[in-house]
Amino acid sequence: MSSKTARISTPIILVNFKTYLEATGEKSFELAKIAEEVARETGICIIVAPQTTDIRRIVGGVDIPVFAQHMDPVGAGAYTGHVTAEAIKEAGASGTLLNHSERRLRLSEIDSAIERAKATGLTSVVCANTAQVSAASSALKPNMVAIEPPELIGTGIAVSKAKPEIITNTVSFIRQIDREIIILCGAGITKGEDVSSALKLGTQGVLVASGVVKAKDRRSALLDLVRAALEKA
Amino acid sequence: MSSKTARISTPIILVNFKTYLEATGEKSFELAKIAEEVARETGICIIVAPQTTDIRRIVGGVDIPVFAQHMDPVGAGAYTGHVTAEAIKEAGASGTLLNHSERRLRLSEIDSAIERAKATGLTSVVCANTAQVSAASSALKPNMVAIEPPELIGTGIAVSKAKPEIITNTVSFIRQIDREIIILCGAGITKGEDVSSALKLGTQGVLVASGVVKAKDRRSALLDLVRAALEKA
Amino acid sequence: MSSKTARISTPIILVNFKTYLEATGEKSFELAKIAEEVARETGICIIVAPQTTDIRRIVGGVDIPVFAQHMDPVGAGAYTGHVTAEAIKEAGASGTLLNHSERRLRLSEIDSAIERAKATGLTSVVCANTAQVSAASSALKPNMVAIEPPELIGTGIAVSKAKPEIITNTVSFIRQIDREIIILCGAGITKGEDVSSALKLGTQGVLVASGVVKAKDRRSALLDLVRAALEKA
Amino acid sequence: MSSKTARISTPIILVNFKTYLEATGEKSFELAKIAEEVARETGICIIVAPQTTDIRRIVGGVDIPVFAQHMDPVGAGAYTGHVTAEAIKEAGASGTLLNHSERRLRLSEIDSAIERAKATGLTSVVCANTAQVSAASSALKPNMVAIEPPELIGTGIAVSKAKPEIITNTVSFIRQIDREIIILCGAGITKGEDVSSALKLGTQGVLVASGVVKAKDRRSALLDLVRAALEKA
Fold it and tell me: Touching check for A61 and chain D: CB below 8 Å?
C-alpha cells in the first residue's frame, strides 16, 4: 500500500461527494478542507471521494486519503473514456469505491477491478446492496465492503436504525468468509447516533453523502458523525 | 423444486446449445432427443440448455431437464424484451444458467436472479470466470456454480487438462463457503478424459457446448463424455 | 420479406405483451387469438409482440404477424443467452421491436440489429423516446419507427392527447429524412380516440400494451382501438 | 459557446489520449504542451482529449481546446462514479467526445448527453462506426460527427486510404440531413497523407490517437499531420 492508504485507521467516515454541485470543483476542495480539519482535530479517519476531475486538486492541497468513486476494470491502452487504476493513482488517489448502487458493475468486472487496485496499490471498497452480495463481495478479497440498501440512500433514514438486521446479517455472513476485511455501512446516515448504531452493530465505519454534502453547516454535520465515532475509537 | 429438477443427479453433463445454427429450431429438438436417449440408456443426468425460443418445444417432446441459457432479474410487468423466471418456468424449463461469460451480469443482478429462480422453483447455475468469482458466486447460494475460464471456451483445450489449478482452487474456495453446492466446470470439454479429469479434480459435472453441438457425430461425442461420467457415478 | 410481413398494411395496431402475466404462456395464446379474430373481422392489421418463449406456439395457431419484443445484434455462434434474428425467424416471427424504452440499445447495436433483421427477412421497428431520437432512428433505415415518451408509458394518458407536439415533431423530423418509413406512436394508448388523434397527427398506427393486455374485456378494448383505425383506413 | 470553443476552426486535428500511459498524468501535460506549440506555430486547430483526471491540469497550463473523452448523460446529484457536463466544464474542458467505439452509448443516452452538452456550453463530437450511424448521429444535432470504423483503430491503416467509400458515404448521408455539422474521420491515421486524403474526401478534420501518442517523436508526428491540414486550410 502507498503511504496514504497506510494512514487509514478504523473507525472510518467515508464522505462520497457524488456529482453534487455542492461538491464539484472549487466546492469539492472546500469540503475536503473541512474534512481534513475535522480529521486533524479529532484524530478520526475521514476519507473523501470526490469526482474524478477533482482528485488531483484535492490531493494537492489536502492531507487526508482521497478515493475515486469508481474505477473501470481496464488498464492503460486503447480504452477511450475509461477511468483506470493508473490514472487515479497518478492523480493521487489512494483508493476507490467499486460497484456503488449508482454505478453497478458486473461480477467479473469487480473481481478484475480489485486485482487492478491491488496491483496499483489502491485500497478497494466494494459496495453491496444486500447481505448476500456483501458476502459475495468479501470473497473477492477487497480491502473493505460497504453495505448500502439502495432504497434508503438519500432518505435521511439511517440503515443502522431502520434495517439493523441487514447490517448484522452482513457482518455475520462476511465474518464466515473473512475475519479481517473492514465493513462499512451506508444509506441515510445523517446523525451521530446513526454512526453509533452502525459501529455497535459490528461495522468499522460509515459511508455518508448528502448527509454531509448537502448539510447547511457541513462542518457541524461532519463533526457530529465524527464525535460518535470517537466514543468507539 | 419441481419434479423435473428433482430428477437432477450428479455427475451432470450440461449441454449449452448457445445460438449455434446446429442447435436452433428443429435441430435443437433433434439434439435434445439424442441427449434424452443417451441419458436413458446410461442413467447419467444430461441437462440441455437451448435458446429461449426452443424451450417449450423441447420440453413438450423430450423428458430430460431443460434449462434456459439466461434469465433477467426482473419479474412480470412492464419489462419489454426481457426473459423472466415466470416465462421460462411456464415454458417448461426447470432451471437456468446465469452470468455466462457471453452474457455477464452485474453482481446485484445475479443475486436478484437467484432469488427469483428460487421463488419460481427454478434451479440456478451461476457461471464464473475465476476461482475468486466462483467463491463469490457460491456465497449467493445458487444451486450450482460452473467455473469456465473464457479464454478456453470453444478451443477444444479442456480446462480440466490445461488449467487444473483453476478447478482445484475453485473447489477449495467454494468448499470453505458452502459444503453442498454442486460445482461444474467447462471450457474446451470435448472428450471423455476431459470429464474424467474434471470429476477427479472435485467437480460434480461439466458444461459442454461446441464439443457436442458441432461434433460430426453428436451422439458419439455425447456418449464419450457420459461414459467417462459413468465410471465415476 | 416473408409472406407474413407482406401482409402488413397500415394503419397498424401493434400489441406489446411485455412480460405481463396476463399475456404469458397459455394466456399469450388466448390474447393472440382475440387479436386474430378482431383483425379478421375488421380487416385492420394487428401485430402481436409476445415474449420469446411464446412466439412459436402463437405462430403455430394464429394467423397474424408475430413480432419479437427485442433482438440482440449478434448472429449464430457462441452467444449464450442472446436472442438472434435466426432464432426468432425460425420460430415464426416476422419482425421485431428494437430499442424499447424498457430495453434500450446502443446506437451501433440498433444499426447492426436492423442489418441482421433485413438479412433475415424480419421487419424492424425501432422505438424512440424523443423526436430527435426518432429522426436518428429513421436514418438507420428500419421498416418502422415508434415514438414513445417513456414518462407516459403505462399511465393511460395518451401521448397523442397529452403531447401532440412530440408526434408532430417526430413526423416532421422523420419526413425530412425518409418519405416512406412507417411511423407509429405509443404510450398511454387505451381508447379509440387516442388512435384517432395519433392517425390525424400523421402516424400510421399505434403501439399499445397495458391498455389491451390488462383490460377487463380485452376484446372490447382492442375493438375500440381498431374501430378508430377503421375510420382512417 | 464558451470562449475556448469559439476558437475552434477547421480543419481540426483532434488528439485522443485514450488511457495510454504515454499520455497519463505528467506525460499528458507534456503532450498537450507539444500540441499547443504546434498549434501556435501553424495556426491549425488542435484539440486534445486527455483522461478526466488530467483535464484541469492541462487547462491550467495549455491554451488550446481540451475535450473530455466521454461524458455520462446524467446531471448533478446522486450519480456516484459518473462524469457530468458540469464537472468537465468546471474543470475547464470546452467539449467532449461521445460514443467512442471503446465507450459506446445507448441511442437515448447520446441524445440526452448532447442536450446536456449544449445546456452547459460544451462542444459535442459523436463518434460513429458506420455511415448509417454517422447519419443517425447527425440527426441528433451535435457539433461534430466523427466516423471511425473500429476495425481500423490502432492499425496504422488509415481509414481515408483503406476505406474511402465509408467516408464519402458518411459525408453524403450526413449532408442530406445537415449542411453545417463538422465531419471528422479517424482510425489508423498516422501520416500527413492520411489527413490530406481525409480532407479531400469531404471531412473537416481527423481524430488521431496512437499515431501521435505512441510516436517516437510526437512533435514530428503531429507536425506531419498538421502540415497536410495546412495545405487545405
Answer: no
Contacts of C80 in chain B (CB under 8 A): 16, 18-19, 69-70, 97, 100-103, 209
Domain boundaries, chain B: 3-232
Superfamily of domain D3-232 in CATH is Aldolase class I (3.20.20.70)
With an 8 Å Cβ cutoff, are B135 and A139 in contact?
yes
Write down the mean pLDDT value for chain B.
94
Q: What is the 3-state secondary structure (H, E, C) of chain B?
A: CCHHHHCCCCCEEEEECCCCHHHCCHHHHHHHHHHHHHHHHHCCEEEEECCHHHHHHHHHHCCCCEEECCCCCCCCCCCCCCCCHHHHHHCCCCEEEECCCCCCCEHHHHHHHHHHHHHHCCEEEEEECCHHHHHHHHHCCCCEEEECCHHHCCCCCCHHHHCHHHHHHHHHHHHHHCCCCEEEEECCCCCHHHHHHHHHCCCCEEEECHHHHCCCCHHHHHHHHHHHHHHHC
Among A13, A17, A35, CA closest to A25: A17
List the catalytic residue out of C30, C41, C100, C193.
Answer: C100
pLDDT at residue D211 above 90? yes
Contacts B132 to A, Cβ<8 Å: 111, 139-141
State pLDDT tens for residues A9-40.
999 999 999 999 999 999 999 999 999 999 99
Q: Tens digit of pLDDT for each residue in A50-92?
A: 999 999 999 999 999 999 999 999 999 999 999 999 999 999 9
Active site residue B100: yes
Q: Does C82 touch chain B (CB under 8 A)?
A: yes
Structure ipTM? 0.94
List of chain D residues whose C-beta atoms are within 8 Å of the C-beta of residue C130: 108, 111
Active site residue A36: no
